Amino acid sequence: MDHSNRRSEAASVVHPATTPSQTVGPFFALPGALPWPDGPELLPAGSPGATLLRGRLLDGIGDPVPDGLIEIWQADERGRFAHPDDPRGTSTDFPGFGRCATGPDGEFWFRTVKPASLPTPDGSEEAPHVNVTVLARGLLARVVTRIYFPDEPTANAADPVLSAVDPARRDTLVATAEADGYRFDIRLQGDDETIFFAV
Amino acid sequence: MPTDSIGKPADRLILPEYERDDASHPALDTEEYHSTSLRSPRRPLQLLPQNLTEITGPVLGHERVGDTDHDLTVQHAGEPLGERIVVSGQVLDSDGKPVPHTLVEVWQANAAGRYRHAGDRHPAPLDPNFSGAGRCMTDENGHYRFMTIKPGAYPWRNHDNAWRPAHIHFSLFGRAFTQRLITQMYFPGDPLFYQDPIFQSVRDPKARERMICEFDLDSTIPEWALSYHFDIVLRGRHATPFEEDEDDED
């Protein structure tokens, strides 16, 4: 086959530049807009393995952010995604996605499962984690963080992402255990600012 | 433990890679937009590798879209006041490929510049026939279409006599966590652009233009509604010509 010809054809494909991000603003929660009534519930109460993940969104002086939106995306308890781009297949019904507007005290919650570890292309293994998108008035683009679990010390110690961050700030990515689940507070700014990622 | 959660060691995972597009986006600590002062992270962002959680994302389907969600002018007993407009366009990625069957969410102020939200203190009238929220799915070619009314500008107290240019908020998922985008669509020639720190937070003038829709005479509905065209470009897969060749060989 003649690659040089085919490459020149491909080079003529238009590569448009991406649309810029803008803030979600203060009014995304108007009736029928972003928050969904079932947004925080990835599975019904009483489901096997269900756990609560909750926390508060706080600003640079520790005040609650009462007009934020938290979204999570995660694998199921076997490490599976219902998604066609997962090369391991799509054998799960678990939705993996949750969305919760913060309350007057900056609080948010999800009923979900703790995901399993995940393989990576370089052969290492990522510890159980939940990806988080934070949106709010005053944030011109989403910020992204990850929730890791306190009862996975061995997996966390081997996790390539946790291993790469500043050890003094690593704990900002690890939830704390509670009687019926886990707590993960998000601090947008300040001495104990949560680690945020560029994806 | 089911071994299939890890996969056989021999099966090396090959994952797509989404291009980074930091140059398109505003700096989080844009001082002129005062709400950023206590809310924008100050430490450098850490680079997150694009692994399974990043290259997958929620598959949100038609179950999220009601019959009248795409038409913000028919959601109440009467018609909303204002200038009827069609807003349509295509969701693409930066490889130029359409993003099919993906959820598009919009929300906006009414024609008087007032949101149906308890936090909106602008003393302009609410419209009993307008909520201001819509959603639809893109079709197989990435096209979407809403019917709505043109939103009004409104004051917002950020600085002395600050007014937001008229805009419609857009929320997009694409097909991967990496592609999630929240943006605002502005209207051509708005005289308020120069004093709006949210619009101006995008420093590159060419990038700012990508948030402005185009008047679209061909899509107007004669004797009924004007029309604006707005394409939205999400991060692409950084496809090299070689990879595109291989796609074509199937």
Describe the overall structure.
The complex is a heterodimer of chains A (199) and B (250). Chain A has helices at residues 3-11, 153-158, 160-164; strands spanning 51-58, 68-73, 97-101, 107-112, 118-119, 125-126, 129-136, 143-148, 176-178, 181-183, 186-187, 197-198. In chain A, strand 5 (118-119) and strand 6 (125-126) form a beta hairpin. Chain A is globular. Chain A has a domain at 50-187: Protocatechuate 3,4-Dioxygenase, subunit A (Sandwich), CATH 2.60.130.10. Chain A has three helices and twelve strands. In chain A, strands 1, 4, 9, 10 and 11 form a five-stranded mixed sheet that branches. Chain A has a four-stranded antiparallel sheet with strand order 3-2-7-8, with no helix packed on it. A two-stranded antiparallel sheet of chain A has the order 5-6. Chain A is mainly β and 199 residues long. Chain B is mainly beta. Chain B has a domain at 66-233: Aromatic compound dioxygenase (Protocatechuate 3,4-Dioxygenase, subunit A). Chain B has four helices and twelve strands. Chain B has helices at 52-55, 197-200, 205-209, 241-248, and strands at 46-47, 84-93, 103-108, 133-137, 143-149, 154-155, 163-164, 167-172, 181-186, 214-215, 226-229, 232-234. In chain B, the strands form three sheets. In chain B, strands 2, 5, 10, 11 and 12 form a five-stranded mixed sheet that branches. A four-stranded antiparallel sheet of chain B has the order 4-3-8-9, with no helix packed on it. The two termini of chain B are 36 Å apart. Mean pLDDT of chain B is 92; it is low at 1-10 and 243-250. The interface between A and B is large, with 90 and 98 residues. Chain A: Residues 53-81 form the Intradiol ring-cleavage dioxygenases domain. Chain A: Belongs to the intradiol ring-cleavage dioxygenase family.
